Amino acid sequence: MKERLHEIREKALAQINSTDSLEKLNEVRVSFLGKKGELTEVLKGMKDVAPQDRPAVGQIVNETRQAIEEVLENAKKELSAKMREVQLKSEVIDVTLPAKKNNVGHRHPNTVALDEVKRIFVGMGYEVVEGPEVEYDYYNFEALNIPANHPAKDEQDTFYINDKVVLRTQTSPVQVREMEKGKLPIRMIAPGRVFRADEVDATHSPCFHQIEGMVIDEGITFADLKGTLAEFARELFGPETKVKFRPHHFPFTEPSAEMDVTCFKCGGKGCRMCKGEGWIEILGCGMIHPHVFEMSGIDQNKYTGFAFGIGLERIALLKYEIDDMRLLYENDVRFLKQF
């Protein structure tokens, strides 16, 4: 038994001293000190040792285990130190090098303009409401006083999913949906993406954005419309901005008008921006048509209201003096970082 323990000790020490990795060192530990290791097998044979010899043999076994464990621990420390030294040499970091720059995104000009418009109208007590981009023909046309034979419903102007479903051509359907709820009064704006079958050029795109606004309450007049939009223009383009309303026709408003603002570049004197006219058209507006009230179930004898529609891209192009709408959709970081 003593000779067997001596052989195990010498064998274990030899293997430990020849090991060059922590993985192999662990294998040596398991092969000698594990549950099925050589030293454990010797302990199982203690039952065959004479009772008077067991204390002496047990002491030798413990000494052998302690010797092996001590050498294992020292070898583990040495190997760990060597591996750490190799790692430090292979993973050298030059702390004097400049740090890597994070590529942080930038708000799109449309987003900047939309946030500004939202800020102005929310400050006036308006609510921001959204609706579906794939819309029923009824909400997109009929409920807005645009009958079946109206030119706007031509397939050359509108993307049809089927005869009853379209990609919305305006965000006015959101206004109709709010009117049908019957929760009056209403003060809302409806920003969102719209679609029309336009060819892509410097001023047109088949996909663009609109902001439609609506107010319905008792005693609302055209004077309220003019005062609201004049204040909006001053907030957006500067306190010296003046507005001008020109008669126009929209199926869902009567009377209707288009609103111009004094050129914020030349102050109304005439320049390249305003094509020498001193005025720039920015939106359409009008008093809500009685038939629109009727179709939405609102008492037109009690309530009146106004509505307006703004092209978000037009606001962005004018405000930031961008001369080509296509630049807004090319995702060129060099362009976007200017705003």
Automatic annotation (TrEMBL):
<feature type="binding site">
    <location>
        <position position="254"/>
    </location>
    <ligand>
        <name>Mg(2+)</name>
    </ligand>
</feature>
<comment type="similarity">
    <text>Belongs to the class-II aminoacyl-tRNA synthetase family. Phe-tRNA synthetase alpha subunit type 1 subfamily.</text>
</comment>
<dbReference type="Pfam" id="PF01409">
    <property type="entry name" value="tRNA-synt_2d"/>
</dbReference>
<keyword id="KW-0963">Cytoplasm</keyword>
<keyword id="KW-0067">ATP-binding</keyword>
<comment type="subunit">
    <text>Tetramer of two alpha and two beta subunits.</text>
</comment>
<keyword id="KW-0030">Aminoacyl-tRNA synthetase</keyword>
<dbReference type="InterPro" id="IPR004188">
    <property type="entry name" value="Phe-tRNA_ligase_II_N"/>
</dbReference>
<keyword id="KW-0648">Protein biosynthesis</keyword>
<keyword id="KW-0547">Nucleotide-binding</keyword>
<dbReference type="InterPro" id="IPR002319">
    <property type="entry name" value="Phenylalanyl-tRNA_Synthase"/>
</dbReference>
<dbReference type="InterPro" id="IPR006195">
    <property type="entry name" value="aa-tRNA-synth_II"/>
</dbReference>
<feature type="domain" description="Aminoacyl-transfer RNA synthetases class-II family profile">
    <location>
        <begin position="117"/>
        <end position="338"/>
    </location>
</feature>
<keyword id="KW-0436">Ligase</keyword>
<keyword id="KW-0460">Magnesium</keyword>
<dbReference type="InterPro" id="IPR004529">
    <property type="entry name" value="Phe-tRNA-synth_IIc_asu"/>
</dbReference>
<dbReference type="Pfam" id="PF02912">
    <property type="entry name" value="Phe_tRNA-synt_N"/>
</dbReference>
<keyword id="KW-0479">Metal-binding</keyword>
<dbReference type="GO" id="GO:0004826">
    <property type="term" value="F:phenylalanine-tRNA ligase activity"/>
</dbReference>
<dbReference type="InterPro" id="IPR045864">
    <property type="entry name" value="aa-tRNA-synth_II/BPL/LPL"/>
</dbReference>
<dbReference type="InterPro" id="IPR010978">
    <property type="entry name" value="tRNA-bd_arm"/>
</dbReference>
<dbReference type="InterPro" id="IPR022911">
    <property type="entry name" value="Phe_tRNA_ligase_alpha1_bac"/>
</dbReference>
<protein>
    <recommendedName>
        <fullName>Phenylalanine--tRNA ligase alpha subunit</fullName>
        <ecNumber>6.1.1.20</ecNumber>
    </recommendedName>
</protein>
